[in-house]
Amino acid sequence: MPTDTIPGTPPAPVLRSGPAQELSANPTYLEAVGAALDHEMERDPNVFIIGEDVGQFGGAFKVTKGFLDKYGPRRVVDTPIAETGFTGLAAGAALVGLRPVVEFQFADFISCAFDPIINVLARHHWRTGDPMPVTMRAPFGGRLRAGPTHSQSVESYFAHVPGLKIVMPGTPEDAAGLLISSIRDNNPTLYLENKYLYRRLRATGPLSMEPIPLGVAKVVHPGKDITLVTYSAGVHQGVEIAQELDKEGISVEVVDVRTLVPLDVETIVNSVKKTSRCVVLHEAAKRLGYGAEIAATIQEEAFWHLDQPVVRIGAKNTPTATSPPLEDAIIPQPAEIAETLRKVARA
Amino acid sequence: MPTDTIPGTPPAPVLRSGPAQELSANPTYLEAVGAALDHEMERDPNVFIIGEDVGQFGGAFKVTKGFLDKYGPRRVVDTPIAETGFTGLAAGAALVGLRPVVEFQFADFISCAFDPIINVLARHHWRTGDPMPVTMRAPFGGRLRAGPTHSQSVESYFAHVPGLKIVMPGTPEDAAGLLISSIRDNNPTLYLENKYLYRRLRATGPLSMEPIPLGVAKVVHPGKDITLVTYSAGVHQGVEIAQELDKEGISVEVVDVRTLVPLDVETIVNSVKKTSRCVVLHEAAKRLGYGAEIAATIQEEAFWHLDQPVVRIGAKNTPTATSPPLEDAIIPQPAEIAETLRKVARA
Amino acid sequence: MSKTDKKAGSETLEGRDPELLRRVYEVMVLTRAVEDRMVAMYRGGDLLGSLYTGHWHEAISVGAASCLRPDDYMAPIHRDLGAHLWRGMEPWQVMASFMGKATSPTGGRDGTLHYGRLDLGIYNLPSHIPANFPVATGMAFAAKYRGEDKVCLAFCGDGSTSRADFHEALTLASVQSLPNVFVIENNQYAYSTPLRLTSHSAKLSDKAVAYGIPGVTVDGTDVLAVRDAVGEAVARARAGDGPSIVEGVTMRMHGHAEHDPADYVLKELYEEYSKKDPVELFENVLLKGGVLDDDTVKKVRDDARQLAIAARRKALADPMPEPSNIEEGVYAD
Amino acid sequence: MSKTDKKAGSETLEGRDPELLRRVYEVMVLTRAVEDRMVAMYRGGDLLGSLYTGHWHEAISVGAASCLRPDDYMAPIHRDLGAHLWRGMEPWQVMASFMGKATSPTGGRDGTLHYGRLDLGIYNLPSHIPANFPVATGMAFAAKYRGEDKVCLAFCGDGSTSRADFHEALTLASVQSLPNVFVIENNQYAYSTPLRLTSHSAKLSDKAVAYGIPGVTVDGTDVLAVRDAVGEAVARARAGDGPSIVEGVTMRMHGHAEHDPADYVLKELYEEYSKKDPVELFENVLLKGGVLDDDTVKKVRDDARQLAIAARRKALADPMPEPSNIEEGVYAD
Ligand SMILES: Cc1ncc(C[n+]2csc(CCOP(=O)(O)OP(=O)(O)O)c2C)c(N)n1
Ligand SMILES: Cc1ncc(C[n+]2csc(CCOP(=O)(O)OP(=O)(O)O)c2C)c(N)n1
Ligand SMILES: [Mg+2]
Ligand SMILES: [Mg+2]
């Protein structure tokens, strides 16, 4: 590692002490992201946030509200609309010792940074041995009636690419702990925030700022009849459905993979070896959604334990519609998910 | 369809009669692409080719050699280095009745047009009902010692995206017939040319200019013990290996899917239902390679016919190295493919 | 902010077609009336998401669109209701789009600002800005390819000038001498981002120098100044002399969208521009010039209000789409 | 082609440090010697793929690099062997890179022109051009962030000025007033594409107007003209006054790469520039100015040749990499 990447950053003056945002007793998913970012910026003067409208405006979804007052324009950087440019900028800053956190206003616009993400950030360490600690935050997903170019699930655009980590928290607790680990990770990390959950999902209590390791899945609801492998919004959906099916005598084990890359195959496979049946759920379109990788892997690793084929649930292979009746027909609904679990469990 | 998209193009003067390029008796994969493009440009005045160095230079790989002399600069358009720009230009031209064929100099550089491809071209027809007949040609793949940013397999960047068709011919005959269908198709089509095959693979005889329908797989080597599902360079590799394994008493059925989207699931599944064993092969990295979609689909559709799990063969989950011993260790080699087929067939 | 290059075009009405001036005025008034109704609908919770309006963009949007022939192409943005209405878009269709109704131009598949109709020669853009710029070069390319003398007029905001699409489209249009006119609607802000964080050039029209094409900045609240500049640019493009940039300077008088209180905006700017309502300014010019009298003005405003009210009634009554065919139409036959 | 803005800087050597001039000359000579050897290696089939050389780029590459401090950052391209050598890159490492040897800076994982060493403050760019431009803004951003007075110097070709990365990087650097210097190596062609199909602006440095920053065009075969212009720009950046563009006009005297016969190039250009070898031109200036005498010139050229020969020998003898750890290092710890 070149000497001049040893952090030489002067201790960053904090212009205002205390948290950038006051947290509620049961912080939301949105508050959890903000609190974790705040925590890391306080802890490490090399961490800064860059993106469109992240300063005075506090970001389109208000994740960075209060950050400008607390950290100043040096560490809270408003950019022109230039996704290719500021993603490449983050790469250059990371190469020489900073730890940029890039905010994409909507995950849909990460398409404009696809080139630098896969060709500048992802492949760099393997090519050169240089570090590339960039965290890319992006609010993704549908159900907000935002239409084909404001509702995309983007994980499948990137999961094939070597050198990226992909983090998709499903709870406020994980949102905090996984963002902290992402920022401390020395690799380019795609941290995808389900914007539908921002204000709808709350933590059960105060948040811990302990890092949660990347690559460790979690059994969020134990069960014995069937395994539901999912992530992001699928987690709370899955748990609610599992609780309902418990009453019907179907015991669903819900596994939250939490990070798609690296993927904790062991935890998934162990659950399937126990239940012998598996459904994979995500909001993204089904064709080459990450469910394809998970299903293909499960049948490779646990074929002899499977009583039924692994079933994938994803959105229809269409863009995401704006109009409610259309969007609801495209994105998997709880009733449909429950029905699929029943069918596979009872088959 | 708006009235002014009814082709109003004046018959295009052909400046020089006869083929743009003389074909050899057994045309190469490269000649097949050029001949099919030439055929369509002669046939339809709305078809034009646009890209970097496609004019006087005839393109980096010489696919359009002779085209400028034959069709002139109006229909053979040299561009600045502006992948986002000329891909969007093609979309606009297609909307009002032209049929652009875009050449990306290397498939690696299609990353710079990822945004318009998925957000402007792919989703447009579903959103609006307008046509979007754009064909995007890109030379992809490794084994030319060209390294991490000149050797990429790009199909997995796009196969998740609704509205695109993805065509990956494995023989000169298919290269011609599938390109003709792609150009006549009213949808954005990604036509991926394996550049390693350009001068290495020859047709068995003169080429037919009959269109080959998109979405129809082909059994290129019949067999009964095991199915090898593949595409592009995997086709001739697979057939050669199948012939070798015939001698060992292992009968391999090689299925060339030819188009990834739409995917001919029926032909694949029928073969697997016959052989009960399946290996999927591609040059792209394994994680979320298209083999994941194929394997997941097969176990969904033919689970009860499978004697063994579907095995995926793909490149290692690393960038593609430049140095021969490294690249050869990353990209699947014939011996490794044959060995996997033996294992699965005999298991 | 960008200084304007030329005096406002409204000093004199000499040599201008009164009939055309009246039509321009009518569409500007209708635009305002429809958007005011839509703001009410937003506040009343009738719309799906947020609402993007073009208050104070009417002069640029209608003025520029009015320089085109019906068979020319257009690639407008979310501030350009006026340009759509000029071309014959029905107000109720626009409302239906913001409501996700079955009767919207996309049948509710897309929605909000995505209502462009190709049968009116208008590109229906995605959210990514300015994706319409490269597409506009393609429409212009097609016209030139066919030997037609059509022009394509594309709009973008100040904030969009920093994007890849802007640069690559302008580069292509200039080296290929395409019949394009690129109008920059400089409303001082990109969402919350002020101009100085978007561009360091003195004027946004200075970017024309990078492409070796004409660039001019005009008062975007003066519809005749816009018409003069865009008219020149359209004539140049039609004559085969290539693309130009026209910057119109105005102010975004509402939030980025209606959900945005826009408390980040400098009060002075609001004060300055509250005195520069493009519709009122033009109305006064026409009254002073004797093209309109008070009765006509009243009638135009009443008709616009009635049309907007009727549109609102129809849009509210229109059905939501039915999902049965949702998987159809991903691919064209 | 771009006209130059200022007279060549070589009119006088007054006030220039002879020691520095000698070092610049030595590195230019070494660059030529090494590239001539590599051309021979290419023809001899010793290299993996093609070979990109910087013949006639030596003045821009070495001249610009020589304006930096050792702790400044640099983001050079495939014409800039000279800049790498100025910083201490070993010739044999470059040859090893084009051969995919284990001893190349990437150990054969990447290769050919991808040999930049971060320990020399040099970014190792991917193939996508000019991806090094946004990265260069980040290195400059980091320096400013830390209150250091480091500068980042980035190079690109004429053909790269049309790309997204060029525009977005320049926009960012200008609005944030980053300590960047952007050097455009205008060698008249982008692969087979002549300048007129790349840009419609009179000069490539005119693009600076779009970003409100200084832009200047100099004779890229005159190393002192380059040094004067880049030196000014570096001083400006270091003083906190923001980025600039310096265009150096030269000619690509070989094919795009050695496989390319470049028969599309205008003969006149070859003729004009065959008389403008930057190394010879500078040599004559130094001889005339009494900074060098014939013996020193002979010694410098002999030493360079010997160094290049030794490098070739070592690179040829070096081992190919061993694949056992190929899956390691995709992720950093
Ligand atoms: C590529 C891209 N990045 C970000 C956005 C989010 N966004 C939508 S509108 C907007 C501001 C646009 O400002 P400007 O171009 O000035 O147009 P205005 O809204 O001010 O009329 C932003 C950042 C987007 N639509 N596309
Ligand atoms: C985004 C992208 N598109 C296409 C290419 C292929 N390519 C490599 S070098 C080159 C020409 C570059 O010309 P210029 O920028 O003038 O540099 P020069 O080689 O002339 O020094 C092209 C088209 C590329 N590397 N990156
Ligand atoms: Mg604006
Ligand atoms: Mg060049």
From TrEMBL, chains C, D:
Superkingdom of origin: Bacteria
Cofactor(s) recorded in Swiss-Prot or TrEMBL: thiamine diphosphate
Matching InterPro entries: DH_E1, PDH_E1_Alpha_Subunit, THDP-binding
Coiled-coil residue spans: none
Domain annotation Dehydrogenase E1 component: ranges: 27-323
Keyword vocabulary terms for this entry: Oxidoreductase, Thiamine pyrophosphate
Spans annotated as Disordered: 314-333
Protein name from the UniProt record: Thiamine pyrophosphate-dependent dehydrogenase E1 component subunit alpha
Native species: Pseudonocardia charpentierae
Lineage, top ranks: Bacteria, Bacillati, Actinomycetota, Actinomycetes, Pseudonocardiales
